[in-house]
Amino acid sequence: MKKIPGKRAEKPIGRRTFIKGAALGLAATALPLNKADAFFWEAFFQKHFLEMNDAEIKKVIERLEKEAALKYKKEIKIGTEKAIPGVSFGYGLDLSRCIGCRRCEYACVDENNQSKDPQIHWITVLRFKKGEKWVDLEESEKYYNPSLVPEPGYFYMPVQCQQCENPPCVRSCPTQATWKEPDGIVVVDYNWCIGCRYCMAACPYGARHFNWAEPTRKPEEINPNTHYLGNRPRYKGVVEKCTFCIQRTRNGRYPACVEACPVGARKFGNLLDPNSEMRLLIERKRVFRLKEDLNTSPKFYYFFAYGA
Amino acid sequence: MRADQLASSLLMCFLLSLFLVFPAPTRAQEDIPKKFLVPPPPFSPGIFPCSQCHQGMPVNRTPRKLELMHQDIELKHMPGGWCFDCHNPTNRDTLRLANGNLVSFEESYNLCGQCHGTVLRDWKIGIHGKRTGMWNGEKQYLLCVNCHWPHAPRFKPLKPMPPPVPPSDIK
């Protein structure tokens, strides 16, 4: 057998040369050439959000705020409000009132800084023909576009993250970049997500969305009040989802979709407070949860306040 | 006086004294109208107070087609109804309940609740209608008439926002 002489064989690298080269290379990578590179290495060595202490989180937030300010030429506040003790959020949606106007969908986009191009919407409004088998979501229409809604003979069902008590997306995540917070909100850490999209395959509600390209939004359209686990600027290649407007609800406010709904079909409250509108409606109205048979135990309750 | 008459009058006295000792709760006592944080009623500009025109105008109680003013109002609510079913003929700046009590325009939900009692009950606890503000604090309600024009209360159809971009069109 003839030996093929390779380049390596012609000029062997000695142990010293190798160590020298390796040291130089390492030094080059550690040297911050400009601000963006400094961000890169800090982000690269960032710890998991739940393992960081307050000082470390503060440092990360400072870095992210600087990064966002550079990108959008605008001051963006990134909050880290923790879950309020004794609170478990629940959501109600009155299917007997929803008229399918999609106001919630666009209010969500503006509140939560979703990408305009490629377009990402956290809420999908589905249209069903009345009187037909409708629990089969495959039969629904998502692109309806009449001049006026509601159309006679149809009804509408908005679907978004159901904030499951037993979320299959969380279990499927290989990096623990998504988890359920103590107040029941399922959140994503965009700095920890590797973009494998296993969670999207695991979610039975189609509630998770992927940034296939760098998310685009005009600086004047950016909502500067954000939360680390919610609507802060996202990156290309990460998954995002509805967080019940974590930046609003952890400060006591209603989610943006609740305040946008022109017919008042959307309800929000604390499931652990017996006097909240959520508890009262669950006790008094006909309620169901989507795909309950999958044992995901959603905290999103569809109900019928009116009619049979 | 016959014995049975005496017995019945005695029973009557006993029952009356019972009412004196345990007075029946009056309607006003059992639901003191709670104040709700509501926006001002959506009057057409310049129309309120009604008394600026109606002051001193004779009251015409006959149902008829209005020709000089309020021609835009075509009552599509409660067939056979008429203005004074809800408006107070003697002071137009108030509304009048069926029992004769007067309510202001800011508390018109009490008027609507006379017929739509179950809806009023749901509205008070936040199941019907839109609430804004704080889920754990002060909430802003909307009056019934902010969404339902009382003279034709069905919610008006809206133009929907554009449908999402289908995946095939995302470049």
What does the radius of gyration of chain A come to? 24 Å
CATH architectural group of the largest domain in chain A: 2-Layer Sandwich
Q: Give the helix tally of chain B.
A: 6
How does the overall form of chain A come out from the CA principal axes?
Answer: elongated
The radius of gyration of chain B is 24 Å
The topology string of helices and strands of chain B comes to HHHEEHHEEH
The largest sheet of chain B has its strands arranged as 1-2
| Nearest-integer average pLDDT of chain A | 91
> Got a strand count of chain B?
4
Sheet having the most strands of chain A: 4 strands, mixed
Distance between the termini of chain A: 86 Å
> Which band does the percent of strand residues of chain A land in?
15-25%
**Which residue ranges of chain B are poorly predicted, with pLDDT under 50 across at least 5 consecutive positions?**
24-33
CATH class of the largest domain in chain A: Alpha Beta
Compute the average pLDDT of chain B: 82
Q: What is the SS-derived class of chain A?
A: alpha+beta
Count up the helices of chain A: 10
Molecular structure report:
The complex is a heterodimer of chains A (308) and B (171). In chain A, 28% of the residues lie in helices and 15% in strands. With 308 residues, chain A is of the alpha+beta class. Chain A has 2 domains: 30 residues, no CATH class; 216 residues, Alpha-Beta Plaits. In chain A, helix 3 packs antiparallel against helix 4. The longest helix of chain A has 19 residues. Chain B is mostly helical. Chain B has a domain of 99 residues. Chain B is 25% helix and 5% strand. Chains A and B meet through helix 5, strand 10 and helix 10 of A and strand 3 of B.
